[in-house]
Specification:
Elements (H helix, E strand, L loop, with lengths): L1 E7 L2 E8 L2 H10 L12 H4 L2 H4 L4 H10 L2 H11 L10 E8 L4 E2 L1 H5 L6 E8 L4 E7 L8 H20 L3 E11 L7 E10 L7 H9 L2 H13 L13 E2 L2 H7 L3 E3 L20
Parallel strand pairs: 2-8, 6-7, 6-10
Antiparallel strand pairs: 1-2, 3-5, 4-5, 7-8, 7-9
Helix pairs in contact: 4-9, 5-8
Length: about 270
């Protein structure tokens, strides 16, 4: 867990990053409820199925830890593709050694033992692209809308990786105090895919498309993070804008609602227009 405290546009923001789902899970499970929420009714527990898509907080934790099979199957069907290993991009390079397909005559005549010519495939260094999917959806976003926006994010990753990029994917929440002239805010990012990992739909389905990632587990983050103030207890704050989140973290932000036609993305430059 990494925490940076900054001031941006007059707002004091804790910018928090978790390097893996496992690290985020351990933090939620092992951190006590903070003093602001200690005597409050916890929305991570109270919220019902119609809003969260899970029957309980424990069910949401289990899905985060062990995978979301129903969502994975749904994604596979929508994407019409199985989980695939990223192809390693290589190029052929000429080398000299004691074995090969033909001799280099000048080297042979000079008695150089490594006079045979061969070709080998050498990995090409690929550019890493960091993508941050904003899931700070307000209460009016339906489960179906969350799913649809997440599928767009999957499709963007597939398009970029088919072009030779290696993509890191994070999910991001931003929330701030309401109705204050000098508000506190918190931004929380969880890495769900490293750049050197394959596009594993089973692993990524829950944190990316399930509403309980926000409406139970990110809510629990607000309930346990020790710096959260009392003003968050009434409504858990107001979502930070995508424009603000874009400035807080490195990489490209995929906003709550992706308006660009994913089929028209040709390179990472197109992500600047989202």
């Amino acid at each position: 867990m990494k925490v940076d405290r900054i001031k941006y546009s007059g707002i004091d923001i804790d910018v928090i990053s978790y390097k893996s789902i496992h690290e985020f899970y351990n933090y939620l499970i092992n951190t006590p409820i903070n003093k602001s929420f200690r005597w409050e009714e916890l929305k991570s527990v109270k919220n019902g199925y119609s809003f969260t898509g899970t029957e309980s907080f424990d069910e949401a934790v289990d899905l985060l830890k062990n995978g979301y099979k129903e969502g994975s199957s749904k994604l596979q069907k929508r994407l019409k593709a199985e989980e695939t290993k990223m192809a390693l991009v290589t190029k052929r390079k000429t080398v000299y050694g004691v074995q090969g397909y033909q001799p280099c005559v000048p080297l042979y005549l000079n008695g150089v033992p490594t006079n045979m010519i061969a070709t080998v495939n050498k990995p090409v260094k690929q550019k890493v692209v960091v993508l941050n999917k904003d899931i700070s959806y307000n209460a009016f976003f339906t489960k179906e809308e969350i799913e649809e926006e997440s599928i767009k994010a999957f499709r963007i990753i597939r398009k970029l990786e088919s072009q030779g990029y290696r993509c890191e994917l994070n999910v991001v929440l931003g929330t701030s105090e309401r109705f204050k002239s000098n508000p506190r805010a918190f931004a929380c990012r969880v890495r769900i895919k490293s750049a050197d990992e394959r596009l594993n739909v089973s692993k990524m389905a829950f944190p990316l498309i399930h509403p309980s990632m926000l409406r139970r587990l990110y809510f629990r983050f607000i309930e346990v993070y020790p710096e959260v103030t009392k003003s968050f207890t009434s409504g858990y704050g107001s979502p930070l804008s995508s424009d603000t989140l874009r400035e807080l973290y490195d990489g490209y932000l995929l906003p709550k609602k992706i308006d660009i036609d994913v089929d028209k993305i040709r390179s990472i430059d197109d992500l600047k227009n989202i």
